[in-house]
Amino acid sequence: IRPRQKLGGGAMGEVRRIPSSRKGKRAHPHMVEKKIVERINAKEYRKAMQSAIGGTSVVSLVKARSTLPEAKKLPIVIDDKIESIKKTKDLVKFIEKMNLKADLEKSEKPRLRSNSRRSRKRIFRKSILFVVKDDSALGKAGRNIPGVDVCQVDKLKVSLLAPGAIPRITVWSKGAIEAVEGAVEKAKL
After folding, report:
1. Distance CA 103, CA 105 (A)
2. Which of 34, 43, 76, 167 has the most Cβ atoms closer than 10 angstroms to its Cβ?
3. C-beta contacts of 43-50 below 8 A and 24+ residues apart
4. Which of 26, 20, 30, 31 is nearest to 7 (CA)?
5. Please, what sign has the CA dihedral across residues 170, 173, 174, 176?
6. In sequence order, what are the beta bridge partners of 123?
């Protein structure tokens, strides 16, 4: 008779189903009974989306999160040609021309969240959000810049517009501004 395996190394441990095997399922594992994702009413979410979109045009609210130049007017609406930017360096040059480089530099240094068992997790600060009408090359250009997000109008969420309930700098394309009203009505939870 082989000795029983002691449960160590986390909740599941190295559990044996039969004495001669290794690993396998535990007999009565821990069950997760907590709801991780909580649903929200559709009308309530639409109101939250409207207030988040409106919050991106209020200078005092955006300054609470971001470093915004004094002369900058909100909302920032740009021609649809921005959707054709394909390279990251071109997008960085565009951000520098708009005098938003200071906010971008803040998000380059990650905040390290320590974890007792594993290595530290790097969390980047949210910086600029680009809202475009269609899926474009701008998404690929923006994904390599820390803190920058590119989102289609149809996939817009409250958590992208105002993470932590504080609006962020949002750059809209003209096509996105025209299509935003329909996107609010179709807002998915």
Report:
1. 5
2. 167
3. 45/158, 45/187, 45/189, 46/184, 46/185, 46/187, 48/158, 49/156, 49/158, 49/161, 49/184, 49/187, 50/184
4. 26
5. negative
6. 111
Higher-confidence residue: 29 or 168? 168
Contact call for residues 168 and 130 (beta carbons, < 8 A): no
Order across the sheet with 169-173: list the strands.
76-78, 169-173, 128-132, 149-152
Query: What confidence tens digit (pLDDT) does each residue in 129-171 have?
Result: 999 998 889 999 999 999 999 999 999 999 999 998 999 999 9
Q: Which residues contact 170 (CB under 8 A, 6 or more apart)?
A: 56, 75, 76, 128, 129, 130, 131, 161
The two three-digit tokens of residue 162, written as one number: 């105002």
* Least confident among 23-27, 52-56, 158-162: 23-27
**Quick check: 133 and 152 in contact, CB under 8 A?**
yes
List, in sequence order, every residue forming a beta bridge with 76; answer none if it has no partner: 171
Contacts of 18 (CB under 8 A, 6+ apart): 24
- Residue 73, CB-side half-sphere exposure with 13 Å CA sphere: 2
